[in-house]
Amino acid sequence: MTKANSDRSEEVAALLPLKPQDYHILFVLLDGERHGYGMVKQIERETGGVIRLEAGNLYRSVRRLIKQGLIVESDRRPAPESDDERRRYYAVTEFGRQVVAAETERMRKLVAAARARLATSSGKLTR
Amino acid sequence: MSRRGQVRGLSLFERLYGALLVVFPAQFRQAYARDALELFRDRYREEYRRAQGRGVLLFWGRSAWDAIVSGVSTRWDRWRERRGSAPSARPDRDNGARRRNPLSAIPGDVRYAFRSLSRTPGFTAVVVLTLAVGIGANTGIFSAVSGVLLQPLPYDNSGDLVAIWTRFTPESGYDFPKYPVGSPEYFDYVNQNRTMEQVAAVSSERLALTDGTAEPEFVTAGYVSSSFFAVLRVPPLLGRTLIRADDGAQPRPVYVLGHDLWQRRFGGDSSVVGGTLDVGLDMAEYGTRGEIVGVMPEAFAFPTPDIQLWTQLPLDPERTWRGGHWFWMIGRLAPGVTYEQADAEMETLMAQWAVDHPDHHVGHGLFLTPLLRDMVGDVRPALLLLLGAVGFVLLIACANVANLMLARSEGRRRELGVRKALGAGRGRLVQQLLTESALLSVAGGALGILFSLVGVRVLLALEGGTVPRAQLIGLDARVLVFTGVVVLITTLVFGLAPALRAGATSLYEVFRDAATTVTAGRKRLRFRGFLLASEVAGAILLVIGAGLMTKSFWRLLRVEPGFRSENLLAVRFSLPSRSYSPSEAVRFFSDLTERVRVLPDVENAAIVSDPPLLRSDVDGRFHIEGRESAVAGEFCCTGGAVTVGYGSFHTLGIELIRGRLIDETDLPDGPLVAVVDEELARRYWPNEDPIGKRIRFLMTDGPWATVVGVVANAKFYGLGESYPVYYHSYEQMVSWTGGFGARTMSLVVRTHGPPLAVAGPIRELVRAIDPDLPIVWMRTMDDIASASVARPRFLMTLLGVFAGVALVLAAIGVYGVISYGVARRTHEIGIRMALGAAAGSVAGMVVREGLALALIGVVVGLAAAVAVTRMMTAFLFNVQPTDLWTYTAVAGIILAVVVTASYLPARRASRVDPLTALRTE
């Protein structure tokens, strides 16, 4: 188990850093399964409209994430009344979850380091 | 579905977007195209609700760009994945055959294509020939463009060289876009400009040469300022070129020999440098003997290829009279100065000159042109016009070949379907069919190059030798690259559509089609209909171009020349000043005229400064007594001056309108007389009788000449020009000017029979009078007239040939498409006829379909012609580029061709035997 975990962590590390849009797709899917339009709208809301994916770009990412094993096409459907059977839904895999976590951790460290540096350098800059 | 209906434009944008998805790999499309379209639809509705029209357009643009970028990136992703450089959690689903490098299959494809094409030699020959005509025409015209327009001049940094002329728009309203320069203008520009490294004055003149080891001959000499050689940066082969000390108003003449002259007359003897040369110069202030100071290297000849030696242009810095223009200038841009800067400076200078010299520089200023462009002159627009025309010929040829290829691939659908079913990928089939197309266009290109080699020679012969730099036309690397690119584009244009279509074939389709013959060919037929319409449109454009040129040429030929050109011979003389004083020259010409007049077969003979149609010099300013001029003491008016001996009007056949002609009663020292033409009378004495009015010319303080007659307008400046002309007496001019212009005159001879019959006797007469005198040239007036319209005739002929080719190709195209349609529908037609349709109505139906397709092409072609033929304006004489008559006639011709081409298959359709047709199932 530990061995398998360490193997996985190497794989996880190989994928970092994630592209921003990949990160957002995974991030949105942590919330539950979604179809393409759902993902796009959610990402747009969460980023305040800064990241707006068009179809080509979105599905290019989806294709890549599937190949990398981070997401899968989902068989399950949400509640039948809100379902649209033409659409395919996607869900994040366990491996995807680990990658999001690792990327988040990487960014947390980065943010912390950046804050610290900004704090020490701010005096010099204003002078 | 109902939701979609509420949003305007969705289906169109969706279809466009769906089409764009081909940028993605096929696999991706299979997996995601539906979802991507769904997402596109949702986002479209959202944008539509939010922003309507503009927002939707922006959204579509963004989506389209996104699709293209993402599609290309996805292909890139896939490629990297296959190379194994990108992490991939799942094995690639592609099968092994697809993953192989597609290039490795090319040799096999080529062999296969060879075999398959040689099985259908008729088809192959037609395609290769069609392409050869298209590619050959393009290669030929482009080789002319390359040699004449693109090849740089053979001088150091030749891109920095400029030509300087003046543009002259005299008050008479005529525009002379390229007019010579005078010496005050030269010195002012040399002193005032800050953008030129060097400026030189250039002119040329024919000289009689007697020194050396050959017969007396006329050679063309460059008259140049000493800076000339420095501007071009060409060093001498021997000795030196001109230096500053050689310049001046009355220079001690020195000569720089051209390589050819040095070899020919002096046997390449280097000791001639330092020796003297004797030339006949028709300039009194100018010595005739001078020192040979140098020899130029081989192939150096400027400004024209026939220049044999160079000497100084006498330029007087003290001269301030700004009339009199007889040379032009070349300059070299100073280091770091761009052409635009020099041009801007010139404009500033000219604005200043117009203020400083309103008498001379309002409507008359210097301007710059890149030297190469200047030397190429009006050939440039003509060549570009032809290049455009052959481009259309090639497009039509491509459309035709595409049609043939489609027909061929229809015939091979079974083969292709089976191969696909057996595992050949779509890409493999497309590649293989493209290989066939490439092979065909390479063969067409090779044959086309041969065509072009022959064609260009024919073309130049047809043109009559007025194309500058024609010797540079040939097959160089640039032309071959051009042809290569044309072949490549051709392959794609005619090969891609059939190949993609064939690649999409599936076995299922093949058999389905076989079962439902009636409608299956519809979609393919629509594409072929599109090809047909574009062929018709292209053909219309070319035929209209040719039609306009023809009408313009016809109008030009119908211009009343004002003289009788048949049975008229012109002989040019330039008497050397060494052996002829002005009075001796007068005696020579009167003696010669007398003797020629009594030759058998000669009706009349006289001398004139220039025969009609050959004048280009327009510096014939004159003054009318009592008339105000812009500046006191300057000439008020502009017209061409023609010097005539007694009997010229009769000999040339110029009709007297009123008053009398210049005759023997006008003695050399008697009262000066002049005759004006109707154009000049109309312009300057619109409501008065010009007879009795007095004019003066040549010198602003010269004597007055009385107008004694008005004659009909004779075209001295070319058939298309109507510049006003005044005539004055040769004998009187030589007398009052003290010899000006006495030695250079033309003898015109009116004969009873063919004019060349008296050529021999005239030569003998000249030899009898002066054995050392060469004749400059001798031509019949018919020849001169024909040469004067050589350029428009050339353009007309060439456009006519291209239009003819286009018409034939379009007719073949129409015939092919309609025949195909009929063949596909034999079954249907059979049923119709079995049910009682008359043969005539079946034929009518087929012709109507052909016409419907052609009409689209006609409309598009006419619209395009309105837009494109505007560029022809400069080539047209008295014809508007949108000439209704031409457009109507051409549309009629095209429709007639289409009807004829569809009638043949229609007749076949009407003869379909219902029984046979139904049995073919």
Architecture overview:
The complex is a heterodimer of chains A (127) and B (921). By secondary structure, chain A is mostly helical. Chain A has one domain (2-126): Winged helix-like DNA-binding domain superfamily/Winged helix DNA-binding domain (Arc Repressor Mutant, subunit A), CATH 1.10.10. Chain A is 64% helix and 8% strand. Chain A contains five helices and three strands. Chain A has helices at 2-15, 20-29, 36-46, 55-67, 94-126, and strands at 34-35, 71-74, 89-92. Chain A has a three-stranded antiparallel β-sheet. In chain A, helix 1 (2-15) packs across helix 5 and helix 2 (20-29) crosses helix 3. Chain A is globular and about 55 Å long. In chain A, 31% of the residues are buried. The mean pLDDT of chain A is 81. In chain B, the strands form three sheets. In chain B, strands 14, 15, 16, 17, 18, 19, 20 and 21 form an eight-stranded mixed β-sheet that branches. Chain B starts with a helix and ends with a helix. Chain B is elongated. The longest helix of chain B is centred in the N-terminal third of the chain and has 58 residues, at 26-83. Chain B has four domains: 2-94; 183-321 and 323-356, no CATH class; 381-558 and 790-919, no CATH class; 576-772, no CATH class. In chain B, 53% of the residues lie in helices and 14% in strands. The relative contact order of chain B is 0.10. Chain B has 921 residues and is of the alpha+beta class. In chain B, strand 7 (276-280) and strand 8 (289-295) form a beta hairpin. In chain B, helix 19 (522-557) crosses helix 28, helix 19 (522-557) runs antiparallel to helix 29 and helix 26 packs antiparallel against helix 28 (839-868).
